[in-house]
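Sample intake sheet
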Amino acid sequence: MSNQVAVDFSLVSHGHGDLVRQSLASLAESLQHSHLKTRVLLTLNLPEPELEAQLHAQKWPFELTFLRNAQPLGFGANHNQAFRASQAQWFGVINPDVFWPQDSWFWQPLAQDAWPSHVGLVCPEQLGANGQRQDYARRLITPIQLLRRVALRFVGVAPSAQAMDLAQADWVNGACMFFKTEVFENLQGFDERFFMYCEDTDICLRLQLAGWSIAPMGGAVVHDAQRNTGRKWRHLAWHVQSLWRLWWSAPYRQFNSRYR
């Protein structure tokens, strides 16, 4: 089909091995009847020769391109690097813990390029492995709100900044995002000063400040989230550092002033 819509998926493995294989197998099955022209840009943030050999030995319904890092990069830097190798109309940022529905209708909106020009980012609903809706669409959090959340958690309450739907959301998490290529390029991608955490918040704020909007893709993926902030001190430190950078950033102040 000469008018096929092209989508490039950026996926980063940081020693994820089996999880990457499972996610790609799920994606391959989901895409079989999608009428999309697809490619996966798989970044090996650490050397994984066994994974690479196994993936080379399989046949895929998409082109699989490997990007190998000499040293590990952060979330945004990895996806920005993949974007520089992308030539598709849509650029998908996906986690290796995302699994895809097996119905081709899921991809129809992308195949039809179904959104108006002001939409710059689309994303599906995210469900946990238990089938419950995850807090992928969120409200912007302030320092005072964070302190309140910490206090509530200390007394056994698990608060959430979840928005009821995308219309009420300020940002969506970086597990599964599809950007129009010209939008991602215009925004100059993720801000690489965020090594990990908050780069998804920042790019969503900048996208909206630039006049684009976020829209639902329709359908849902399973995001078997591997959340490390509460389990690993290094991740907690990265998260706190990124929140501090976000709160002092111009996009955060401008967004709060304009929309809140």
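Comment: The chain has nine helices and ten strands. The domain at 6-259 is CATH 3.90.550.10 (Spore Coat Polysaccharide Biosynthesis Protein SpsA; Chain A).
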